[in-house]
Design goal:
238 residues, alpha/beta, 8-stranded parallel sheet
């Protein structure tokens, strides 16, 4: 078990100061893409760029002006991960423009066994709680286990299941136990209808579609305006 001692992982004050200066304030008229792997900025959009723990190791990416990030250890990329990876993750996640932890979670397609996936997922949950930053969750085939884990741990931070494509029944079950849902290019319309506006997020992930296109598609299903899809802006406290 790793015990994170705050004073042992305190960032250099100059580095923290630089990150603070770069923290983005979200304009009320902008769309929020809460999870993307794209490095290209779209007009009138604030994107939360996902980076892996090793990509942010040199800190340079986190000082990029006008950018927000999520940082995590993906369950399908655990081959080269160790406890020292968690230490790097904890340190880099303290930058003020790192707004989410993840993506992280559980995946039946991963080459890592379930116990290993669960260990690193739980460690990232600890980081999320300690730093008070919401969790972006990747889950494939382990939703029962995911729900059980949330019931056991009772986290205070938001757990957002990203790229949700599941059926309405699963959506309702996740919502019942306090999960929020994020939808991208592919989604189940009944699941979108089931998600309350204040718990529905929008993302591009790895899609080549624009975030505005995805917002419009979801707004069409919800029969609402794009402005009504404001959960992302509220989460980022705009």
């Amino acid at each position: 078990m790793i015990i994170f001692v705050e004073e042992n992982w305190r960032l250099n004050e100059k580095i923290v100061s630089l990150a603070d200066k770069n923290k983005t304030q979200v304009d009320v008229e902008m769309l929020v893409d809460i999870h993307t792997h794209s490095v290209f900025d779209e007009a009138n959009c604030v994107s939360v760029q996902n980076v892996m723990w090793h990509e942010a190791e040199n800190f340079a990416i986190l000082t990029k002006a006008q950018s927000l990030f999520s940082i995590g250890i993906h369950p399908c990329f655990l081959d080269a991960v160790s406890n020292s990876s968690l230490e790097i993750l904890f340190e880099t996640a303290q930058f003020s423009n790192v707004v989410f932890i993840g993506e992280c979670g559980l995946d039946k397609n991963s080459t890592a066994n379930f116990a290993v996936q669960l260990y690193f997922f739980q460690k990232q949950i600890e980081i999320s709680e300690k730093l008070q930053k919401p969790l972006i969750i990747h889950c494939v085939g382990y939703f029962n286990e995911l729900i059980l884990l949330k019931k056991q741990l009772k986290p205070k931070q938001k757990w957002i299941v990203h790229g949700f494509r599941g059926k309405e029944q699963l959506a309702l079950e996740l919502l019942k136990f306090g999960f929020d849902l994020s939808f991208g290019k592919h989604f189940n319309e009944k699941s979108v209808l089931a998600a309350p506006l204040n718990r529905l997020f929008v993302e591009t992930d790895e899609s080549d579609l624009s975030i505005s296109h995805i917002y419009q598609s979801i707004a069409n299903v919800k029969q609402c305006s794009i402005d009504d899809l404001s959960a992302g802006k509220k989460l980022l406290k705009c």
